[in-house]
Amino acid sequence: MEPTTRVELEEVRAAVRELCARFGGEYWRACDEQRRYPEEFVAALTEAGWLSILIPETYGGAGLGMREAGAVLEEINRSGGNAAACHAQMYTMGALLRHGSEEQKRRWLPEIAAGRLRLQSFGVTEPDAGSDTTQLRTVAERHGDHYRIYGRKVFISRVQHSDLLMLLARTTPLERVRRRSEGLSVFIVDLRTAGERLQVRPIRTMVNHETNELVFEGVEVPVEHRIGEEGQGFRYILSGMNAERILIASEALGDGFFFIDRAVGYARQRVVFGRPIGQNQGVQFPLARAYLNLEAARLARDRAAERFDAGQEAGTEANMAKYLASEAAWEAANVAMTTFGGYGFAVEYDIERKFREARLTIVAPVTNNLILSYVGEHVLGLPRSY
Ligand SMILES: Cc1cc2nc3c(=O)[nH]c(=O)nc-3n(C[C@H](O)[C@H](O)[C@H](O)COP(=O)(O)OP(=O)(O)OC[C@H]3O[C@@H](n4cnc5c(N)ncnc54)[C@H](O)[C@@H]3O)c2cc1C
Fold it and tell me: What is the position in ligand 1's atom list of the atom closest to the CA of 130?
């Protein structure tokens, strides 16, 4: 893979901005109010090939890297849209790409790249495990040429708009493994054929994010749908998490710059006490501070993406980028709310919608506390805090 030049990266950004311009605030507000999946937007993005840019050319994708993928998601969110409706397809396939067999890659990746198959769901979180993934209880029991899955997952997104689900389940009981990260395996579950043994219960959240509780009551998964070796799934999932964190950081940056763009525009034209509110230091300085924190987070994201694309270890950088970008976006969200005064609460300005959406990146896919623990332990060498 040849990294794109700065000019080419700007072309990616410009093309995504152009596509997003067809889906303005009215479109996203309607989706939000009706709790509707942005089907038209996802279809347009897929058709333009943006969702498959991380898939290598051999399998029908564009074979680009994290810098470009990050730029796509950042621009979507900066335009006022919400990339969370479809972002998982970009990184979920990473485990398949890196650890799947050639046969599995040939079967699924070209179909995903062509937009005929959606791999939008990623099932890890459980009600009783939470952030402590190694404690998950969903089991996959081997019966000859297939596994049967039993258990519960919670907050599993886009299940109703995906064909495939990448699932992490336990194949060896916790008490029989040497290390708690062992004994977990990754499966591709075909949601189209899961039938009544998979119950999907939507969870209504504060954002328009199609997320669900899943109850597995013996869902059958063929052995050839297991990715890599049995028992090594946690390692495969972890390797994909760096990509996920860099991409979520990019979305958070997009949110943050959206707030700054809108709030600066408003602060210039809103006149109170005979002058634009942006002339007051009380309004201007918080905007400037939020902007420079976003720019610093952008550098952290760029560094993480560059290391990832160069095949270097990027765990620390990906975690730090996700933390810094989500915190900077949340700061910008609050500053925009304040700058808009009462109008920040009026739905038609899109600030309150993006305010709700931006809050999620502090919690998911990993909470910022867990990132602080990571840095404390792995960077600063302090004792493990959990
Ligand atoms: C809208 C939405 C969509 C989601 N989509 C998906 C999805 O598609 N797939 C999926 O698998 N998951 C998904 N999630 C789940 C998300 O990844 C989890 O909510 C998140 O990882 C936190 O887990 P938890 O909610 O169980 O919190 P908990 O683990 O219960 O943590 C609760 C709080 O305690 C803190 N805490 C816990 N332990 C420690 C500690 N040792 N030190 C310091 N603080 C600690 C946490 O930081 C957090 O603030 C989604 C969540 C939401 C809200």
Answer: 26
| Beta-bridge partner residues of 71 | none
Structure confidence by residue, pLDDT tens digits, 197-227: 999 999 999 999 999 999 999 999 999 999 9
Q: Are 94 and 65 in contact (CB under 8 A)?
A: no
Q: What is the CATH number of domain 119-231?
A: 2.40.110.10
pLDDT at 3 over 70: no
Q: Does any ligand 1 atom lie closer than 6 A to the CB of residue 211?
A: yes
pLDDT band at 267 (very low <50, low <70, confident <90, very high): very high
Ligand 1 centre and the CA of 98: distance in Å?
A: 26
Cα separation, 214 vs 220, in Å, equals 15
148 burial via Cβ count (<10 Å: 0-12, 13-18, 19+): middle
The reply to whether ligand 1 has any atom less than 6 angstroms from the CB of 129 is no
- The CATH homologous superfamily for domain 6-113 is Acyl-CoA dehydrogenase/oxidase, N-terminal domain (1.10.540.10)
3-state helix, strand, coil in the chain (%, to 5): 60, 15, 25
Question: CA nearest 77: which of 258, 324, 243?
Answer: 258
> What are the structural domain ranges in the chain?
6-113, 119-231, 235-379
On the question of a cis peptide bond just before residue 383, with omega within 30 degrees of 0, the verdict is no
Output the CA angle 299-254-160, nearest 5 degrees. 125
Q: Does domain 235-379 have CATH number 3.30.260.10?
A: no
pLDDT tens readout for residues 27-41:
999 999 999 999 999
* Model pLDDT for residues 51-91, shown as the tens digit of each residue: 999 999 999 999 999 999 999 999 999 999 999 999 998 98
As a whole number of angstroms, the distance between CA 12 and CA 9 comes to 5
CB 236 within 8 A of CB 95: yes
Asked whether the whole model's pTM tops 0.85, one would answer yes
204 within ligand 1 shell (Cβ under 6 A): no
